[in-house]
Design goal:
alpha/beta, Rossmann fold, 2 domains, 4-stranded mixed β-sheet, 20% strand
Length: 317
């Protein structure tokens, strides 16, 4: 059977009389809370039955809010969905999205939040000639999605973790309007270290992030890599980038430092900024204070689609 792309497959599946339970969970953003609770409960029971999680995992999650249960459930849901997907369309290895194959352990979850739910409001703010900064690009799903809208623009994607960067580079190779950089962004130019957790290669943070110790406690075993940290202001000047229209930042507790290194960029171009604020509670106060100190004309709102992000924009009406 000819391979379909993931988006088309999900569109067809959700319209069936009795959709697959994993399709409902992955694809449908507006499921009633009671129904979603029941779906999650069924998936937890299935995972217990198949010994993918244990009662001990559940106990640690309830008592200590340990994230290992969540990560194990992500892997279980992905495995179950892949079995169903491959059975239906004959896909052996990778999902096919847009122009080429897309790899990565958590493709499904990125597709759900970034593309289907449009967490970062790409459809609202990214225009055909937009220049976009993707800080914390991970495996590139946001960059690929934004590239569909900024066809005459440019996407600059930053990902410091070696293994994740390799996947990012492969995933974005089909797109002439995406450039990728193995760099961290911060508030100074320096050599730094990034901590990458074994439980999921998608989870990493700089060692001087406020979340480094918390992540070590929650996720356990990790490796460290040396990385280059640069200020966005200096990167744009050195690479002669002509403008910036949109900045997306999700960097596991390093968001404030990235913004501090982008003050001149924000002052000069007044880009739309979508920044994650679910990592650190204090960011909900500190980040608006910083951005409004740079340009008091910004308006902002809290977006709770999938995760908590602030959207900063200039009302040009």
């Amino acid at each position: 059977m000819k391979t379909k792309d993931l988006i088309s497959f999900l569109e067809e599946e959700k319209n069936k009389l009795i959709p697959n339970i994993f399709v409902i969970y992955m694809f449908t953003p507006n499921v009633y809370k009671v129904k979603m609770f029941l779906i999650k409960l069924i998936m937890v029971v299935k995972a217990l039955f198949k010994r993918k999680i244990s009662f001990q995992d559940i106990k640690h999650y309830i008592v200590n809010k340990n994230n290992k249960l969540y990560l194990k459930m992500i892997n279980f849901i992905r495995e179950e969905f892949l079995k169903y997907y491959r059975k239906k369309v004959g896909e052996e290895d990778n999902f096919i999205i847009f122009k080429g194959p897309v790899k990565g352990d958590d493709v499904l979850f990125h597709v759900k939040s970034i593309i289907i739910q449009d967490t970062y409001h790409v459809k609202d703010f990214v225009k055909e000639d937009s220049y976009v900064i993707d800080v914390g690009a991970n495996i590139g799903i946001f960059s690929i999605f934004a590239a569909q809208y900024a066809k005459r623009g440019k996407i600059y994607a930053f990902e410091p973790a070696s293994e994740t960067f390799k996947i990012l580079k492969e995933n974005t190779a089909y797109y002439e309007n995406i450039e990728v950089f193995k760099l961290s962004l911060g508030n100074e130019n320096k050599k730094g270290k990034i901590r990458i957790f074994s439980i999921s290669k998608g989870i990493s943070t700089l060692v001087d992030s406020s979340l480094a110790d918390k992540f070590s406690q929650n996720f356990g075993e990790f490796i460290e890599e040396e990385v280059e940290v640069v200020k966005l202001d200096d990167f744009l000047m050195q690479n002669k980038v002509p403008k910036i229209d949109f900045i997306k930042i999700d960097v596991e507790g390093y968001e404030l430092k990235v913004l501090e290194g982008a003050k001149e960029t924000i002052k000069k171009y007044s880009p739309v900024i979508v920044v994650a604020v679910y990592h650190e509670p204090s960011d909900k106060v500190k980040i608006p204070q910083l951005i409004l100190s740079i340009n008091p004309n910004y308006k902002y709102k809290l977006n709770k689609i999938g995760e908590e992000d602030f959207i900063f924009y200039i009302d040009k009406k």
